[in-house]
Design goal:
- The protein is an alpha+beta fold and about 725 residues long.
- It is about 40% helix and about 25% strand.
- It has 22 helices and 30 strands.
- It has an eight-stranded mixed beta barrel with strand order 21-22-24-25-26-27-28-29, surrounded by five helices.
- It is elongated, with a radius of gyration of 53 Å.
Amino acid sequence: MPAHPQPPASSPPPDEASSGLDLAQTRSLLRVIVEAMPNAVVLVDAAGSIQIANSRALRLFGYQVGELDGLDLDRLLPERFRSGHASARSVFMRHPGTREMGAGRELFGLRKDGVEIPIEVGLDVLRTPPLTFVLASVYDATERREALRTADQATALAQSIIDGAPFAIVATDLDGRILEVSPAATSMLGQARADLIGRKPYSLRRSAHSRAVRTIAFDGKAAPRRADCCREVRKRVDDGDIDQREWTLRKSDGQQLPIDLAISGLRHRDGRLAGFIGIATDISERKRVQAAMRHMAEHDALTGLPNRMLMRDRLSGAIARARRTGTQVGVLLIDLDHFKHVNDSLGHHVGDRLLVVAARRLSQSVRAYDTVARMGGDEFVIVLPDLAARRDAVEIADKLVEHLSVPMEVDGHALPVSPSIGVCLFPDDGDDADLLIMNADTAMYVAKEAGRRRAVEFTPQMATAASERWALERALRLALEVHSFRIHYQPQVCLRTRRVVGAEALLRWPQDECSYLSPTHFIPVAEQTGLIAAIGEWVMRTACAEIGSIRHQLPPDFRLSVNLSPRQLTLSKLPALVAESLALSGLAAEQLELEITETSLLQDDIVHLIEDLRATGVGIAIDDFGTGFSSLSRVTRLPIDCLKIDRSFVRDIDRDPSQAAVMAAIVAIGHRLGIRTIAEGIETQAQLQATAMQGCGCGQGFWFSRAVPASQLVQTIARIEET
């Protein structure tokens, strides 16, 4: 702060001011002016002596009124500033003018109590002839310094946050030139900060694979539709929104990186848009997880093939393309024959391995752009797009039959599994994915019924039959729900004594008061749909209950025969069902005989099941004996009580010696093994006599009686025994 100034050469001599105010008046006027000033003001004479200090200056430096008058100005400065201040004052007095001190640098004042305070000083020359003064306006810089310090700290904190942020930050002007980038951004972009500042590093274009995902190309080249994309982002930001979506970052080295990019506005204090700031996050790991989850959702976990959902999507796409190109699309529905036997005999782990091998063989047998999918269980679907003719699909299906029929090596087993294939094509056999799959499924069932190991083309007649089968299935479910089924009982008669020894429970389905639907019509549908298990359980419970209610009116050695379906033989709860049905009906175990078909003996675990059933005390009969392919050695090892001779051997027994010979052989086997024999389907006197002549023990058929309701069974038995 300058002191002891020399009067400038331009100042008028004292005697030239004689016409103005006197010195006292001048001082008084200056004091009024200085006191009125809004900040701390000190008036110093040329010698550096304080002449006037207003009340704000007194408060700032901690003095009372009058204490600063005549005091040397150096008393208001810390010791370390005084020598420098004297030199600066001398220079200032030689070249007086307006200047500031302390602004932008460290300058401190000294309070009366010795406390230093940061100050800034503005100096002005004030001439009041004959005297020259320096007017020092003093500003307390404490708050400003604190604000600057706080701002510096905030700036440092913001910079540290930016530098340490795990996401990329890029700030640009309105033209897209980069103003600043974070370290994470330079790492993500693969370029140094110096190479990015001032450049237009990106252009925007829509990605070819998705309308919702854009591509940022960090190569400085203009990209198609760049202006459209920029306008889209600019409009959102102008509206005060944040434009956030997924993008694909194409770096200068060609590498592509999926990112999540949020773009917002950089604005002037008046709110005008000054530029953009983008915050980008690498989402490649998230994309990898999403892709893995999508793959899991769209592919079969066991075989890795597309599942039903993805297959249907691809089929719909192939149909849409075929509509445009005039080509055809083939759909093959494949079911593995005898797969259940593999599961039942060798275990599900072998069955799973077989499915994997079959899936690989299917994939190797078709074109690279065909879709092989697993529908579930042992069913597969193949979508054949862009076919020129129907025969192309048929040829592929025939080739698959050949390839899949070659035994598959699984865990040391050569498994002879063949396919049944249904073939249909768009547009001839259906115009949408669901209908094509349904019709291919229908043709596949026809292939099964035709003997398996073959491919069958869909025909409109199959659709009619399938519609009837589905209608029958719905009716079966309803009949089971509302208890529409009935059970009739066909007596079994001892051919030697003509006494009734039992009756077979036969399922009947009334259609009206006078007619019944033949079991040969609805039982196959019940077996295909799995309803046969529920129906069989109902038959077991109901037959035992009905016969149990009249058991005291029946012959003492009367035996009820109930058929078991192959599906029921797979149920672990079957022995418990039998025991419960007997307990509720009041029948003794020896009064119940369970009939199983001869083909059921092929199941490997049938021995354990028969042993479990025999443990309950019930009898076991082999139904339709002679028509299957069971081994006689297996029959001899099972605890069987009765062989029921199929009606096909009874029909011509009185005219065909070969049929009589078969009958005699079966009867001889039964006698040797101590097993009873019952001939089914005796309808004439001649058949009865021929059957009895071969030594068969019992028989049943229309010759004795048709099957009758339980309410008529007692009277029917009496009539048979009286004739």
